[in-house]
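Fold this complex.
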Amino acid sequence: MKPVIALTKGRLEKQFLAFFESLGYDVEPLRDKGRKLQIETKEFSFFFAKGVDVTTYVENGIADIGVVGGDILVEHQPDVYNLFPLPFGHCRMALATKADYQWPGRKKRIASTFTRITKEYFKEKGESVDIIRLEGSVELAPILGLADAIVDIVETGTTLKENGLVIEDEFFSFSARLIANRSSLKIKRDQLVPVIERFKEGVKQG
Amino acid sequence: MFLPSGSQDETGVQISNRLKASEVFRLVAEQRNFKPITTPVVEYAATFTNDIAGMDLHSMLKWFNGEGEIEVLRPDWTAAIARAIAGQPPSEQKWSYQGSVFRFDKAEKESRQAGIEIVHAERFYGEAESLLTAIAYLQRLDITSYVLELGHTGIFEAIIAPYSFTKEQEQQLLQAMHDKRADLVEEIALIHEDAELASSLISLIDAYGSRDIIEQYRRKWSARQNLLAILDHIEQLIDLLEASGVTEVIVDLGRVKNLPYYDGIMFRAFLTNDGSTCFSGGRYDKLYEQFQQRISAVGLAFDVDILAKHMKPASEVVKSCIIASPATHAVAEAYRAELEGQVVDIQYQLETPANYQTIYEVIEENGQYKVVKL
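Structure:
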């Protein structure tokens, strides 16, 4: 059976394809996939999912290896081998609020998709906050008055700027990472190690 | 009424396989002179969360009792058995157990385990007997396609011993090794600006595979007697396993303990068709230090739910039905006893004849009841 690779849709997808192609693999079937979520190539079986779902598929052994953002791994802490960083998908975690915002005297309200990371960040700072979980477009929360600030990933900062938000602090930087299922790595070693080694070579050259 | 997430009702093949797995385990354990032991389902959290047992309270199903102490549903058998037998006389003991463990951090809150614990036994004997019991049990269940992995807590510990990491750094390094996370291992190892330590640990991450790995590391560690002794030990167990018919044995020299009480050899088996772990265990002498005892303790636990899922279906048994009535039920019951080795149903009205290979009926003839085959 071919190795099964789970890939994160969207942000990381194009960057992965460029990286994968640089390793000498044929990526045409992946580029021409249209809306298909599963693609078979000569060497691999691929499927595409949301980042957090990639970790779930790998943890449960549906995929042998996966490519996912480091932010997802820190937030969700799946039980997988978190092998090494890949040379794309760079981003950082930031605390942002409205420009010239006057912080209230009460306990702060922070909106985020990354509630675990937010909790740990404020714990490190020794500050109690209320965290409001949002699923997306978190930039809206301070603008509409739901929260005082947000904790979110930032790539270029353009979205924040366009929504009138400024970065107060940056505290983590991430990239995409290669993960592997704990037992697949052992029982499919002969199939997976050559692929992983090729990824490693690509990282060194990248 | 609904069920909470992580709980489920069960019927059919899964439950009959599990009952069979339990019965076979009881027989195998009894034949090998293990004595059964059980501990209560409700225990104090401290039995599992103390510094030596080291389990995470978050993953336990817990509540406060009337005195304000935290009680939990048993999350682990080994720590509970250690508590139960700590006061026993210091002579060799072989215990077997079966029952549920409860955890929040698993897909199913309740899972069933069957396991063995061997204490106060000669060290190699205890490990060999644990592994051979596991092999015998899997064989009796006709589960033959698995990969058995050996590791040892002493390798990582010996490599980092000369360096003074803080407790927090050591914990981070342990977790990074557990995750085979090369970049973080390197970052932590380089705290001591020792490139050799970083490169040793990073290469250890990839030191898994067939027993050939042991030869490579024997050359690498030729001047390190403590590490060579560990490799000898692992190799001795591989020889034993291979001589006992286990064909797929692998090693992971970079494996680290995921519970603080592990203290020496660690073993587990992956089923080859889906990679699930069907048993795991190892040496945990340290667990008894909380009772001021320094003893030999080794054991392993099977995941009975996983075994039940992978057991082959039982060979087809003939199913028969006897059609009776309230007046003839006793006659049908007497005839049922004669159909030894068959599954025999008694029904007053036969609605699904296709379910049975043979159908009988109790009829009245000359004032006498008799059973006839239809």
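Chain B has three domains: 9-140+298-312, 146-272, 319-373.
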